[in-house]
Amino acid sequence: MLWAEGLRHAFNEGRVVALDDVSFNLAAGQTLAIFGPNGAGKTTLLKVLAGLIRPQAGSARVAGGRRAIGWIGHQSQLYGHLSVRENLLFWASLYGVPRAERGARATDVLARLGMTDRAEQPVWSLSRGLVQRAAIAKALIHEPRVLLLDEPFTGLDLGAAAELRALLAALRGAGRALVLATHNVDEGAELATDVAFQLRGRFVQYAPRAGRGSAEIAEAYRRAVAGTNG
Amino acid sequence: MGELLRQTWTIARKDLLLEFRSRTAIVSAVVFTALVLTVFNFGRDPTAVSALDLAPSILWVTFTFAAMLGLNRAFQLELENQALEGLLISPLDRRSLYWGKLLANLAFVAVVEAVGLPLFVLFFNVPVGRVLLPLLAVMALATLGFVAVGTLFSAMVVRTRFAELMLPVLLLPFLLLPLTYAVQATARLLADRPLSEVAGWLRLLAAYDIVFFAVASWLFPYTVDE
């Protein structure tokens, strides 16, 4: 469903390496959690996968192309002066959802996210947690097969973060492939079927989760970071 | 082509709806137009230079700077919540993004001109009744030209620091030609010269529009992709 092969990318004329020979592939129902400190190149990797950045070497491909991708980041990509529903209809139109289906899709996705009563509110008037839910609704409106998640828990309180984790687990169960990039191991480990540690652009570890718990992954991550810094 | 035009309308409709809701730029541009025309009206010496000599330049300088307010906002609103990234991740064709922004900007400037032209007639007491249709043709062609170029530059500068300062600095040199053509055509129309004297300027404006619309449509994807 998603393939990345030998990705390399650097900024500032090669001085800042964001991607260094990154390869992986992901099948339906898999979730790759990428852990790394700020500046490790996680967002660059997601942007390459989404087609926002053309890598300097290597290639990435998503089955179904751009229409198959949903993006959830710490910025909502929603327009503040439009209502939640107007935003969803706009993005559904851009993704080629047939006009006759857009309204029903928006109603359905808002109901799944518990936002039916907020549908007509302008986005600027929502709390951070509700904006993030609306952003998730936007990412799901075209029923993407691959979800790219860039620090999606940023700014959410504990309850909202737990809700988001449950929703992502349900999406994985429904056959979506998820790539989750975060610097916080506790937030993403439970969801992962595969785990990668990205440091200075390189996957220093990339393996199936294989029953490891969050604490075990967190400890391995701390060792990897300490080893790289040392 | 049908999908391109559908996406173009989706973008334009969204931009117009956002402007209708916030009214940030349009109110500023209309007030700016009224103020500039007022200042020029009371700031000139009517015994030294006739209104007909000054009016065409004043009209186009006013419209150009009022339009800058809308052009500045065209892509600024996409920075809110990083909506621009969402647009670029989506299957939206880059040309549709440009054409949609162009369409919304043209509607914006048309509103400014619809308010500005009656004020211009009122303040400068220039006879436009008999030449209204050709004058509207000049306005349409000149506006299309400078908005086509302005929309491209708006995308170029949006991720730079001081974007609002950069836009006029970069854009104005490219507007010298259409503004010159528009001023010349308007001056002849207001002086009641035969339409044959205006036709040449209209053809030049049309040529500018075709060339710069085509070039901007081709260059636009390079300005928004990283």
Structure commentary:
The complex is a heterodimer of chains A (230) and B (226). With 230 residues, chain A is α/β, with parallel strands linked by helices. Chain A folds into two domains: 1-63 and 146-230, Rossmann fold (3-Layer(aba) Sandwich), CATH 3.40.50.300; 68-144, no CATH class. Helices cover 36% and strands 26% of the residues of chain A. Chain A contains seven helices and nine strands. Chain A has helices at residues 42-49, 84-94, 99-112, 128-140, 158-173, 185-188, 214-229, and strands at 2-11, 16-26, 31-35, 57-62, 69-72, 146-150, 177-182, 194-199, 202-208. Chain A has a six-stranded mixed sheet, sandwiched between helices. In chain A, strand 1 and strand 2 (16-26) form a beta hairpin. In chain A, helix 2 crosses helix 3 (99-112). With 226 residues, chain B is an all-alpha fold. Chain B has one domain. Helices cover 85% and strands 0% of the residues of chain B. Chain B is built from eight helices and no strands. Chain B has helices at 2-22, 24-43, 51-79, 83-89, 94-124, 132-157, 163-190, 195-224. The two termini of chain B are 26 Å apart. The interface between A and B is medium-sized, with 30 and 24 residues.
